[in-house]
Amino acid sequence: MEAKFLERDLEVKSNRMEWFEGVKDGIPLALGYIAVAFTFGIAAFQAGLSVFQSSVISATNFTSAGQFAGVTLIVSTATLFEVALTQFIINARYFLMSAALSQKIDPKTPFWQRIIMGFGISDEVFAVSLARKGKLNPFYTYGLMTITISSWVFGTFLGAISGNILPDQVIRALSLALYAMLISIIIPPAKRNKILMSVIMISMLSSFIFDMLPVLSTTSSGLKIIILTVLISGLAALFFPVKEDTNE
């Protein structure tokens, strides 16, 4: 009996250390999340959402691309089906990330722990967790989630609060940060990949055509996002599949 208590105590201490390691490794991510979430808070305020509503969205979704798209759909009064389907398409990549991480954890990991880990997966949390050497302790990912989700909600709160305080001219200027963020994300990889650059240009042109042509311009924003995302990404995957690296 005493041996079992000792083993349990060692396990608790190990989990606590893993959690602290996750928090420490997540600090750089948290700093970046605050900046991006601040922009989302501004966008949510401009969409007519309250500080509480904006913060709840960030606390329950934790997906930057999905949340920005969701705010756009809310402004355009899209249907609930369009919002749900758009979120499913945008966030489908998390299925693959969760499946990949499931190979790094102990097969005996309880289902409820897997569910918690799945909720907290973002692109950055996935990358840091995957880079962790050896088997992945769920509590390490919990530590990452603690610091990153907290910073994401805090940044959103600050952005939404600022929207209620700052002058309209400043709000409009800060809202441009979203476009600057998107450009900073897509330009570096596009400069190294001509195919990616072509896909980006086709996406921009297609979106412009949807807005200008009489028939297509009546399409709702939600449906437009769904059509363009599935069509362009599907064609790109068909004609320009990513080759697997055969080098070990």
Mean pLDDT: 81
Compute the CA-based radius of gyration.
Answer: 21 Å
Task: Estimate the helix proportion, in percent.
Answer: over 70%
Strand composition percent? under 5%
> Low-confidence parts, pLDDT < 50 over ≥5 residues?
none
Q: Structural class of the secondary structure composition?
A: mainly alpha
* Morphology: globular
**Structure annotation, total helices:** 11
Largest sheet: none
Number of strands: 0
Short characterization:
The chain has 248 residues and is mainly alpha-helical.
Description of the molecule:
By secondary structure, the chain is an all-alpha fold. Helix content is 80%, strand content 0%. The chain contains 11 helices and no strands. Helix 1 (2-46) packs parallel to helix 3 (64-75). The radius of gyration is 21 Å and the shape is globular. The protein starts with a helix and ends in a 9-residue tail after the last helix.
